Amino acid sequence: MGGAVRDSLLGRPPHDWDVATSAFPAETKACFAGFKIRESGLKHGTITVVIDGRDVEITTFRVDGEYKDARRPESVAFVSDIRQDLARRDFTINALAYNKSEGLLDFFGGEEDLKSRRVACVGDADKRFREDALRIVRLFRFAAELGLDVDGEALAAAGKNAKLLNLIAKERISAELSRILLSEKPVPALELMTKSGIFDYIIPEFRATVGFEQHNPYHDKTVDRHIFAALEESPPDLTVRLALLLHDIAKPRKFFWGEDKRGHFHGHADEGALMAGKILRRLKYGSGIAGEVCALIKYHDGEVDSLRQIKRMLNVLGENLMRKLFEVKRCDRFAHAPSYAARSLPELELRRLEFEKIIAAKQCFSLRDLAVNGGDMIALGLRGSEIGKTLNYLLELVREDESLNRRETLISFAKQADARNPGSPEAPLP
Predict the structure, then answer these.
(1) What letter would DSSP give residue 72?
(2) pLDDT tens track for 27-65
(3) For 128-157, what is each residue's pLDDT tens digit?
(4) What's the pLDDT score for residue 67?
(5) Is the CATH number of domain 203-360 1.10.3210?
(6) What is the pLDDT of residue 43?
(7) Residue 67 pairs with which residues in a beta bridge?
(8) Long-range Cβ contact pairs of 166-173 (< 8 A, separation 24 or more)
(9) Distance between CA 3 and CA 15 in Å, rounded?
(10) Pairing of strands 36-41, 46-51
(11) Are 6 and 114 in contact (CB under 8 A)?
(12) What distance in Å separates the CA atoms of residue 247 and residue 265, rounded to the nearest whole number?
């Protein structure tokens, strides 16, 4: 049924197999006596049978009752006609069935739509979206994942009913958004969602970037076009793609004209990280991924032009997130004006290689890597804040010259009179 048949027609390996039957749930259970059975979907006629360690969902043919919450039917009624069952499906490419005796069952043109490379609704598109508003986002998810166009009637009906997305659980919307972002080519779907106004009900803050001119020689695109260009260059990593989607979200708020008669966006990275945090919390993303995305946005403009700067950033982000930061920076710079990108991308690649050398050589970039510790400072007679200040002073020395990271050498520096009051701890990152 559904996706398995669709994927088979596309030559893609199905991820799971769903079975539909005219048998009632009790009859289905009797057929699988002795197998492990779960009844979590029994209300809607679905039982899950575990066969050779795999879950197989078996659902009785049904028609849906009234939808009152724009998500699920209030009731279902079992039927014996598979056509009635397929008629309630969302899209024609999912309203497909197959059995050995009759072959492909396609009552609504799903196979032809696959050949025409489009996603269209089964029957009345407006009704399909009013029944279940999550289908609006799923429309674009299928288009993105399968590389299909969106049918004009479906697009119009999706835009008309977009406000119903306010009734859908944010977790469901973010799950679909994540799948769009992780598709091979997410940008066409995101552009269409933005143009049709549907994205306004998912990330309304994005609207301000649309058509926003940057008035800066480093940028030859509006903010939204820059974002999409960066996304097109990015690898299918959810953290990286979420960060790129939101990395310039604050530019319209932070724009000002400089004395050089150019547009500037000072502070947009910090403001963008704050905005992204609110957006991701609203969409119910987990604190782990939200924290990483916000950090990538906060530091996407940070300088990494020297070993010291690289090590300081590495101390803040850690190895894995630092590697993702380089990817965000690469995609961001790629989407700049060609003249700037041609100059800055090779420079960035050199910095990335220096970073990899630091990791490979296990060089010191954080206090835990120092050859001395707080106990050594106490033994020298330091107390209170003097300990932290001195350790940070020593860390800065080692970041400049890795050869200094020897216990005897650092003890010697710590004993020096000017090291007893070395000033404030390391300056904040740019």
Answers:
(1) S
(2) 999 999 999 999 878 888 899 999 888 888 999 999 988
(3) 999 999 999 999 999 999 999 999 999 999
(4) 85
(5) yes
(6) 82
(7) 73
(8) 166/201, 167/69, 167/70, 167/71, 167/133, 168/70, 168/71, 168/133, 168/134, 169/284, 170/282, 170/283, 170/284, 171/284, 172/134, 173/134, 173/137, 173/202, 173/283
(9) 8
(10) antiparallel
(11) yes
(12) 12
Element (H, E) at 104: strand 103-105
Polymer length of the chain? 430
Decide: residue 185, CB within 10 A, 0-12 exposed, 13-18 middle, 19+ buried.
middle
Q: 3-state SS of the chain: helix, strand, coil percent to 5? A: 55, 10, 35
Beta strands at 149-150 and 118-119: parallel, antiparallel or unpaired: parallel
Euclidean distance between CA atoms 366 and 324, whole angstroms: 19
Contact 20, 1 (CB under 8 A): yes
Helix axes 385-400, 407-415, angle to 10 degrees: 120
Nearest to 272 by CA among 327, 199, 320, 205: 205
Residue corresponding to tokens 């310039």: 248
Rg (CA), the chain: 28
